[in-house]
Give the backbone structure.
Amino acid sequence: MNEPSITRPESGRDLRADFPLLAREVHGKPLVYFDNANTAQKPHVVIEAVDRFYRHSNANVSRAVHTLGEEATSLYEGARDALAGFVNAGSREEIVLTSGTTQAINLVAYSHLLPQLGPGDAILTTRMEHHANIVPWQLVAARAGATVKAAPIHADGTLDVDAFVALLTPEVKLAAVTHVSNVLGTINPIAQIAREARRRGIALLVDGSQAAPHLPIDVRALGCDFYAWTGHKLFGPTGTGALWARRELLQAMPPFFGGGEMIREVRFEGTTFADPPHRFEAGTPNIAGFVGLAAAIGYVQRVGLSRIGAIERDLLAHATEALQAIPGLRIFGTAPEKAAVISFLIDGVHAHDLATLLDHEGVAVRSGHHCAHPLMQFFGVPATLRASLAFYNTHEEIDRFVEAIARVRRLLG
């Protein structure tokens, strides 16, 4: 496929044709897809890469010297190289291929943290986290007799950084924070947080699921110890993701899953394990998915994260202004630095009812707690409606969205 052409930096209209699903209709109306924080659409190059793998090179990895096996292994390991370059890892051996952020965080919880966790210890996270960055810590804490602490946030959805730093006390063995909130869009100051954690000798894990599609990621510049992200939000296939970790931490971590591919030699007297990262990649992986993810990364890099950022900032400003003009509408999360995510409610209208009726207008938005119960509890609401934008969305779609809200409100009385 040709490299995407570039028009004015605040528009991604020329890129829409690269995403076939955006051309479909829903309930007889052109689709407006505003659920990108849940999963992003896939460009032709990703769909074609997966199709080409299954048609041309399908075989298992690392288990054969025949041509197809070598091709599959080369493509799979090429994805590791692409992921390493995407986050500026120090080496490809620092990248563990996972099924997504959830598996990556669980790997850190059970392989890195649990062996050193004991009664009286603590794990620090924040009020704005996705459940995937809360529940694994609760599970290992329960096993070890440790506790999970949550740093507070401000009413505008920004993290109380001073409170977070104050909670980095000696009993904290690991801190975990999202780079970008999936509900609020808040962009957290990771480099600052990492400096404070490092001064206290506390490892820092960053959930980068919502950051990777929108921001340049440089793990060495950020200064964290672990960085987890997922492929399907980054315009790649589902069931893909990665964990970046400092090499010395990976080398000290025992395996989490056992099976094939993660071993050097198996004897009933004992097993010797492969070096990282393969030590953590037991079983047959999602080979085709990672082939597609490598294609997605290539696509994003050709478009350019600077251009993506400019387009999405423009879309966010337009959508925020339009929504704020709607009587009775409340936006949750108004941080000065945020991604193109808007969570809101309208007085007297249930989020699920509004989302259902908007679907009949061809508009796809997310309603619910967004896997962030503690955040909903902070705001005192059971659910919100979330419109999350990507660079292929347009001003016209935002205007249709706002007009659809007006029509739906009339229906609801």
